[in-house]
Amino acid sequence: MNSRIMQRIAIIGGTGMTGECAVDRALEKGLSVKLLYRTEKTVPERFKSKVELVKGDVTNYEDVQRLIEGVEAVAVILGTRNKLEATTELSRGTENLIKAMKEAKLSKFSIVMSSFLLRPLNEVPAVFHRLNEEHQRMLDLTKASGLDWVAILPPHIADEPATAYTVVHDEAPARLVSKYDLGKFIIDSLEQPEHYGKVCGIGKAPKSA
To answer: What is the rounded distance in angstroms from the CA atom of residue 84 to the CA atom of residue 81?
Structure first.
């Protein structure tokens, strides 16, 4: 797999609450950003002159191919916009991305799911079971990809200022995380090999005594 310095990144899901924070972080780091979007009204005005907009849908393979052309890494923040019914859109998108990345000889991607995957199913509220099943399909595809993946499983994502945050592997360190901290880690982890091939729990760091 290639290991070029990360200068250009593709972001899928960069118009949602957390996705916007990830785009802001990438721009803050001086990266060029290609942003997949479905409808222009969802794209924040401040992004329009700063990123390369690629109109399309993650479930359409050709759109994903166009999106990742010329980048070194991909960040995936696919949400459901608070819809909880059964869906395979997220896993189909994940499958398309992995296939397109292999074809383009790209290796690095970070992908966001949910910390419910770190709990036994009987601890997951029933209303989230369908979405949890879809996140599990995403995680299974990610783990089987053979790429340099970082699976990020946040708890409740809070609309509050950035703080210190903790990242641990295979467990959930806290009950919430700031959307800004999550956005930062989604981008920064792509250049942190200690997180490649790892399931990362993230959360607000406890205050020191």
So the answer is: 9
Whole-number CA gyration radius for the chain: 16
The whole-angstrom separation of Cα 132 and Cα 84 is 9
Q: Classify residue 12 by its DSSP letter.
A: E
Name the residue among 196, 197, 158, 192 with its Cα closest to residue 178: 158
The answer to whether 8 and 31 have CB atoms below 8 angstroms apart is: yes
**pLDDT tens-digit series, residues 175-192:** 999 999 999 999 999 999
Q: Which sign does the torsion angle of CA 112, 117, 119, 122 carry?
A: positive
The CA–CA distances, whole Å, from 95 to 16, 21, 26, 58 equal 21, 24, 24, 9
Residue with tokens 């794209």: 43
pLDDT per residue as tens digits for the range 120-138: 989 999 989 999 999 999 9
CA 121-123-126 angle, 5° bins = 75
* 7-28 pLDDT tens trace: 999 999 999 999 999 999 999 9
In the numeric block, which tokens belong to residue 94?
């994940």
Q: Are strands 32-37 and 148-153 parallel, antiparallel or unpaired?
A: unpaired
Query: Residues 151-169: what's their mean pLDDT?
Result: 95
